[in-house]
Amino acid sequence: MAAAQSTVYFSDFEADGGGWAASGVNGDWERGSPTGVVGSDIGGSGGPEPTGGFSGDFVWGTVIGGLHGVGSDEQLSQNFDFSGLTDITLSFQEWIDTGSSTFDMASVIVNGDELYLSDGGPTQWREVSLDLDAYAGLSSVDVTFNFTSTTVVERMGWYIDDVEITAVPAPASLALLGLGGLAAARRRR
User: Fold this and answer.
1) Domain presence at residue 36
2) 1 part of a folded domain
3) What is the DSSP string of the chain?
4) Range of the domain at 113
5) pLDDT of residue 100
6) Contacts from 171-179 at CB under 8 Å and sequence distance 24+?
7) What is the model's pLDDT at position 68?
8) 135 occurs within a structural domain
9) 25: Cα within 13 Å, side-chain hemisphere
10) So what's the pLDDT on residue 58?
11) Are 145 and 108 spatial neighbours (Cβ–Cβ below 8 Å)?
12) Which region holds residue 84: left if phi is over 0, alpha if psi is between -120 and 50, else beta?
């Protein structure tokens, strides 16, 4: 019988930013409570942004209550320790309005590998789930939500909520001893 996955990280961003760090050319990533503004009402295209989060009020988004910058390259990143973990899954809720991937691009990059490229819609909450088992056992795994935009059209952007990482912890004896330590322990018997 396979061991069940358990949650090793979760944030709905209600209390704080969940440990994520925002960077980029325009500083577009913001933690806040979106109000449902429509892009065409504020001089852009598309929309609306969500009203609140998938659960609760707060999200990370590329400009809350406004339009993301033109020519942006924005990252929302965090480093995780996957030592002693297997069967790792990243899931999150997204609300996106990028005008399809021909204008703006929203992707998830893990240790430099692009694992997800959003199709740009629809403008409603939907779950994305990514298999991160290729990074099992690594002590340093960078997870980045990356948003880039052209200078053609300003739309509402990308909103992220309820980020969760689930995994199966390795048995405690193997995780603590490591393979070399396990062999040494067997020799001492």
Assistant:
1) yes
2) no
3) -PPPPEEEEEE-SSSS-TT-EEEESS--EEEE--B---GGGGTS-S-PPPBS-SSSS-EEEESTTSPPPTT-EEEEEEEE--TTEEEEEEEEEEEEESSSTTT-EEEEEETTEEEEE-----SS-EEEEEE-GGGTT-S-EEEEEEEE--SS----EEEEEEEEEEEEEPPHHHHHHHHHHHHHHHHH-
4) 6-188
5) 58
6) 174/84, 175/83, 175/84
7) 81
8) yes
9) 11
10) 98
11) yes
12) left
Residue 42 is encoded by which pair of tokens?
């504020």
pLDDT digits (tens, 9 = 90+) for 93-151: 999 876 655 678 899 999 999 999 987 777 889 999 999 999 999 999 999 999 988 77
What pLDDT, on a 0 to 100 scale, did the predictor assign at position 186? 38
With CA atoms as reference, report the closest residue to 69 among 144, 158, 150.
Answer: 150
pTM, entire model: 0.85
The number of domains in the chain is 1
- Tokens 């002590």 locate to 139
Kindly report the backbone phi and psi dihedral angles of residue 96, in degrees, each rounded to the nearest multiple of 5, phi listed first: -140, 140
Please name which of 103, 111, 108 lies closest in space to residue 160, comparing C-alpha atoms.
108
| Number of neighbours of residue 106 by Cβ within 10 angstroms | 26
**Domain with 180 in it: what CATH number?**
2.60.120.200
